[in-house]
Design goal:
By secondary structure, the protein is α+β, with helices and mostly antiparallel strands. It has one domain. It contains three helices and eight strands; from the N terminus they run αααββββββββ. β1 and β2 form a beta hairpin. The radius of gyration is 22 Å and the shape is globular.
Amino acid sequence: MNRPGQKLLSGAIAAAASVCFATSALGSAATPHCDRLDARVDISNTRPGHRLESTSGFAVTDPSSWMIGRFLCADLIGDHQAEMVVLLATGRDEAFLFIFRPIHGHWRLSYSKTSSLPYIWQLSVRGRALIEKRPFFDSALCCPSGYSYWAVSWNGHGWTVRPTQK
């Protein structure tokens, strides 16, 4: 026997369940996985990645010619979604920086540093900024004589690079 409002309640439960399912499906599509395999694929599909291939002599589509030196996933913009940060290294002491943002369920290149100088020695996160540790050399190229620190951060419209403290 049906009580009054039972159909209405079961309909409301079904509607709520479908909304929850749709929301979780959208949430997973809106945030791609942040992993090294995605990074390799995404770098090889970017214009800067192909420009590196033509100017640096390594094949961006050949995984044996380069490696991911540092890989980070961190919310650098403040939108509660992690950006994918990749410091790419070739075998010749070059370091190239790529930052990808999750947009409509896919990684999109948002920033790249594709010149081999200045060399990025280390990369870390401080708050919402990436901190680059760059060596400088007074004479011989064997050993750094010191380091400078640079912050890569989002200003609301784009990425900025400025000197910072250690």
